[in-house]
Amino acid sequence: MTQSSLPFLTVIVLLPIIGGIVLAFLPVDRLAKYLGIALSTVSGILALIVMLLFKTGDAKYQFVTNHSWVSSLGIGWHFGVDGISLFLMEMVALIFPIILIATNDKSKNNTYSAWLLILEGACFGSFLSMDLFGFFLFFELTLIPAYFLIIGWGGKDRSRAALKFFLYTLFGSAFLFASMVILVVIHQNQTGVFTFDITKLVHTKLSYPTQVLLFLGFSAAFVVKTPIFPFHTWSPKAYSEAPTSGSISLASIMAKLGTYGLLRFDLNFFPQASYRLAPLLLTLGVIGIVYGAIVAAVQKDFKKLVAFSSLSHLGFVAIGIFAFSTIAMNGTILQMFNHGVLTAAMFLIIGMILDRTKTIDISKLSGLQKAAPVLSGAMIVVILASLGLPGTNGFIGEFLILSGAFIGHRWWAVVALTGVILSAVYLLWAYQRAFHKKAENSTSIIKDMTLKEKLYIAPLILLIFFIGFFPSTMLNKISPSVNSLIHHVRTANHLSSQTAFSSKPTDSTGYRTIQAVTGDKSGQKIVTAQVPTDRTNNSPYRSAVSVNKNTQIKTGNAK
Amino acid sequence: MKLVFLIPAFPLLGALSLIFFGRKLKEPLAGYIATAAVGLSFIFSVVVWIKFLGFSGNVFVDHLFVWINTGSFKVDAALRVDPLSLTMVLFVTGVSTLIHFYSVEYMHKDIDFPKFFLYLNLFVTSMIILVLGNNMLLTFVGWEGVGVCSYFLISFWHERPSAASAGKKAMIVNRIADVGFLLSMFLVIHYVHSLNYSAIFAAGPSLAKTTVDAIVLLAFVGAMGKSAQVPLYGWLADAMEGPTPVSALIHAATMVTAGVYLMVRLSPLLALSPDVAHIITIIGILTAFMAAMSATAQDDIKKVLAYSTVSQLGYMFVGVGTGAYAAAIFLMVTHAFYKALLFLSSGSVIHGMHDEQNLKKMGALKVVMPITAVAFFTGWMAIAGVPPFAGFWSKGDVLVGAFSESWLVWIIGLFTAGITSYYMGREYCLAFLGKARWISESSKGKKKSSKKEDHGHVVDPHEPSFKMMIPVVTLAILALVGGLLNLPFASSLKFLDKFLTPVIAASPSYFHPSAVNQIALGVLDAVFAIGGGLIAYFIWSKTYEKPALEFTLFKNAWYIDKTGDVAIARTSTKLAEVTDNVIEPKVIDGAVIGLSKLVLAVGILVRKMASGFVRREALVIAGGLVALIIIGGLRGGL
Amino acid sequence: MSVDLSYYLILAAVLFTIGLIGLLVRRNVLVMLMCVELMLNASNLTFVAFASKLKDVGGQADVFFVLVVAAAEVVVGLAIIVSIYRKRLGATADDLSSLKG
User: Fold this and answer.
1) How many angstroms away from the CA of C85 is the closest CA of chain B?
2) What whole-number distance in Å separates Cα of residue B132 and Cα of residue B64?
3) Which residue in A125, A148, A294, B621 has a CA-CA distance of 20 to 30 Å to A191?
4) Helix runs in A142-270, H state only
5) Among candidates C20, C27, C97 on the partner chain, residue whose Cβ is nearest the Cβ of B622
6) A328 to chain B: nearest residue by CA?
């Protein structure tokens, strides 16, 4: 771990929160508006500096600041960033200033900006915290600003939507809190140290049933937050009733808190439970992909459409997490960032349409392309990226996830591929209904994007293509951490890619017998498997075969 | 050869400059910039080709940058220069340049003139990336790129609902097929760990046969969508909603040839998988035949050509399936010449007829449009395979392959060749011969309104401007002499065969019939081609209504598309609605709401205990205290 | 001289019981409050008795806390009672059920 001289991360987390609290009491509305933008931009720039200073090729946490906070409870003010959280932090850093610039022409600007800033700080805190309690604190803190954003500036049915969102996510969090405490207590019983430090808790030894219980407890909070099918029913209502800023924070940022939690905590703390229960999560992810796409196809409300398409796209993320393949996991991190960018852009454009036509009912819109070519152009780019067109960021993520998942979990990947077709169907159909045809009614005669709108949508559009063409710039920073996480899970499950195997030369049956020695708690046992030989020995692309204790045969990449 | 990156770079630059400055550039400058970009790309293709001829190796790879790198899995953005990609890139850029040039005049006065050329340039860029890509993933980039550009271009006149739907349909059908391509790539990643073509071919022989079968078959599924094979061919006919130069581009130079290219590119794997090759042959010949029959009953001048493209693509796949890879490429190149010619000259007709596309409303155009008529005639002869036009040689090669493979395939192919000549003859006769059916229409003074009629003109067919004639005449010459690329008389004259040999799988040994056989086959081809044409001439130059020869089945293209529409599109919409209206609110959210109702019900029950009478509550507390004491006492052993 | 512990405890129990019965039987809110005080002081007595018996000053310390809480309770309770009396004269505890669930 590298100790940084400047407490970058502390500043990044605290600046928006403290700034937000100050803003809330600021009497001058206009000042609050610009101050809000300035504060979030400063945080964003600091985050950018962190990315530039981030050492590529290092799997460990960097920029670590560690102070004791509530020492009697072992809670630390402990922040750090690694390849997994780096780009999630950047996503927060990028999107919040854009939200503030784009949407702060509201009444009660000071409180509006304040809530957004507090939300930004809380999101930073959740992604960067290396202390389980700190994570939980920030994770829950996000609820409050989000709730008030919906309540204060939302649509007609906002109070029901906000309540449902609040209660549902809180319901999941209750399980998280209980499991968290149990984990810490078990750790204390083993080591005598009462601590919430993630790096220490990782070493807790848990029996398999305990792992499963705690895994389910942790996941309960995360699958609701993400949301993953079938825990998504709060999201369409919340997205559609929330103001643009609320929809963006919910869908692009807070959704990632859920997937990040699955990735960071479930996989690290409960590797065996994660591995064994992976089929459950994979199945939910796949169902989510197909189900979300099907339901999205018939939505009339544009925001609800995005809600269901998010469900579908986050299904891919879930698959990437639980496929336990380095390729898929790299894709997952990338896809989390991508989804943030794309959803934000989508909601911003929907917000522009809403400002102009006062409706986002797809059936009431028509002919927008004629009236507003630039706006439509931006929309089609976002749509194409989110249906995974090569050359855009969406493709890289989906491709890596699916190709990685295909290696170990073939049939899930095959079913998930239908999402590729379905996303084209519902997105293009929606586009056709709203943007093509002749402009039929007065609501469709609208003015095109203003300069300000062009300016704040431009960075997102540029990123779509930049990541599409140069994903390696990001993957280089992501992959060391991801690979070490996968290694952690695989070793915990005795699934080393370096399994020692002795292979006899081809026998008459044309099959090569492989004996793999696998370790497990009950001692070593020898598993014999037969694999087709097909002249593998001559091939320069030799596969190593690893066999786990369930005698599933995995073909991995021999280094 | 380091210049190879310039080939895709120029059209990309053209597209970028049109994105940013398109609306300032206006007509016709935007069009000329786009044309110049593609033209430069063609020139550099030629330069690279000339350099390649002096190159000692078979493959030159230009690594541009690392594209994707996850540690264990790496994909480079690298361009592959080899005979196959060069052949493709040469004719793609060449024909595209002509089409671009033609479009400048054709799209005159369109509101979105710069945008049109933006899409065209992107289209060509994608196609170049597709053929030059050094790995399957880069090919896939171009593959999807042409898909999305076709979406833009087909729905270019997006205010027409039919055009918007046609564009969407093209995209979605292609996506369905792309799943095949993706799965094929996943299998390759799994078993080969690299998507580079060289690596795949090196690993090919060591892979299990079923694996190779699956890889090739899935790739072919992708190719079926892109190259519009049965049953995924409906979108190509609908794609006629786009402007005519787009049709020319999609059908002749880019897009639909991508599927054939991919299969030829994978020929080293395909050669290991004879079973899949048989499937390809069957699908190919079926497509050739069914589409040709569909073309006999179409009334739209462009739809005839659309089905003829599908049919010709079927021939190409017959070539691929029977191992006659070079023949497939040969047919693809010559097809690019004569199909572009046919589309552009039909574009001239449509232009001259003021957006009238119905053959039944044309006739006798030869008088007013003599050059176009000659050009179209050349196209007819070429596609029919009348010697010495280009189609005779290329289709001949494919039929030789079919002959070596199976009698049945060959006979169907030969019969289809006759049909081809027949429907093209029908089209030619309906458009250019017979009575001028547009005169009576124009004397009535109204009917279809088109842009130009609005300001006073009646239908007044005329030869297009000189600028539009240049590409047409160039293509006509190419369609005439295209056969020179690969003449069968001596092995020294088989330029294309020789050029391609290093990178495609060797054709099976039986694919070399004796000279006598070859001559006999050639004569048969010619007889069928001429016979079909003559039949068409005798029937259709005299009449234009003969319902007995225009079967409804063929008019509706065997109802495959309509069946698919009903079976898939409608039922799935229904399913989606049921899911949205019943499952989502009642089942999934129902569980959540049920839980909250349960909590509420418990609350209502418990609430009754709080009566509000202080003393009663105090009694409860006291009672609880007493109970606690008693329990504590009992446990304490009192 | 020392009094036996049991006398203190018996006295405390009697006080507590009187307080409890008063709380349950009387309807006057003021009297009920006084009864609560009685119960609190009964327990205080127990604390002190045990503290002196066991020589543990902790019990006496607890009494101080209880006294403080009792004082606070009286302040708040009396304030509430006074405001209730202002609103509706002579209300008994049984009438004050507007907070029922």
Assistant:
1) 16
2) 12
3) A125
4) 143-153, 158-191, 198-201, 208-225, 234-241, 244-248, 255-261, 267-269
5) C20
6) B70
Torsion of CA A304, A307, A312, A313, to 10 degrees: 140
Element (DSSP H or E) covering residue A67: strand A62-70
Residue with tokens 């050009």, as numbered in its chain: B375
With beta carbons less than 8 A apart as the criterion, state whether A364 and A443 touch.
yes
Q: Which domains does chain C have, with CATH numbers?
A: 5-99 (1.10.287.3510)
Q: Which candidate from C24, C99, C100 shows the least CB-CB separation from B615?
A: C24
Instruction: Dig out the tokens for C48 from the structure.
Output: 């002190």
Angle at A259 between CA A402 and CA A262, to 5 degrees: 100
Q: How far apart are CA B123 and CA B255, in angstroms?
A: 9
B-chain CB neighbours of C29 within 8 Å are: 614
* Cis bond before residue B231 (omega within 30° of 0): yes
- Band of the pLDDT at B448, cuts 50, 70, 90? very low
Q: Which of C25, C96, C101 sits opposite B614 (nearest CB)?
A: C96
- What distance in Å separates the CA atoms of residue A532 and residue A510, rounded to the nearest whole number? 7
Query: Shortest CA distance to A265 belongs to which of A152, A185, A184?
Result: A184
Nearest residue on chain C to B615, alpha-carbon basis: C24
Long-range contacts formed by B54-60: CB under 8 A, 24+ apart: B55/B1, B58/B82, B58/B83, B58/B502, B58/B503, B59/B198, B59/B503, B60/B1, B60/B4
Distance CA B126, CA A247 (A): 35
Distances (CA, A) of A286 to A167, A195, A231, A319, B449: 26, 37, 14, 7, 51
Query: How far is Cα A290 from Cα A295, in angstroms, rounded to an integer?
Result: 9
Diameter over CA atoms, chain A: 87
Shortest distance, CA B603 to any CA of chain C (angstroms) = 10
Q: What are phi and psi of A507, to 5 degrees?
A: -100, 180
What tokens appear for B90 in the block? 């040469």
On chain C, the residues whose CB falls within 8 A of the CB of B622 are: 20, 23-24
Do B610 and C20 lie within an 8 Å CB cutoff?
no
pLDDT tens-digit readout, B312-330 = 999 999 999 888 888 899 9
Taking CB atoms and an 8 Å limit, are B192 and A541 in contact across chains?
A: yes
Q: Cα dihedral sign for A336, A341, A344, A346?
A: negative
For B608, nearest residue in chain C (alpha carbons): C101
ipTM above 0.90? no
Q: What is the DSSP-derived secondary structure letter of residue A263?
A: I
Per-residue tokens: B16: 């970028």
B127 half-sphere exposure, CB direction, 13 A CA radius:
37
* Interchain touch A–B (≥3 Cβ pairs closer than 8 Å): yes
pTM of the model: 0.85
- Locus of tokens 């290092």: A58
Chain A nearest-CA residue for B160:
A437
| Residue closest to B11 by CA, chosen among B167, B135, B125, B180 | B125
Tell me the residue type at A275: Y
Which of B68, B176, B584 lies closest to A472 in CB terms? B68
Assign A463 a pLDDT band (cuts: 50, 70, 90). very high
Cβ-Cβ contacts under 8 Å, A414 against chain B: 183
pLDDT digits (tens, 9 = 90+) for A122-179: 999 999 999 999 999 999 999 999 999 999 888 888 999 999 999 999 999 999 999 9
Mutate to test the interface with B, among C23, C28, C46, C99 (most CBs of B within 10 A): C23
Dist CA B462 CA B245 (whole Å): 19
Phi, psi of A77 (to 5 degrees): -90, 85
Chain centroid offset of residue C53 CA = 23
Classify residue A553 by its DSSP letter: E
Q: Identify whether the C-beta of residue A54 lies closer than 8 Å to the C-beta of residue A81.
A: yes
Look up tokens 């919430």; give the residue. Answer: A196
| B576 vs A230, A233, A294: nearest CB | A294
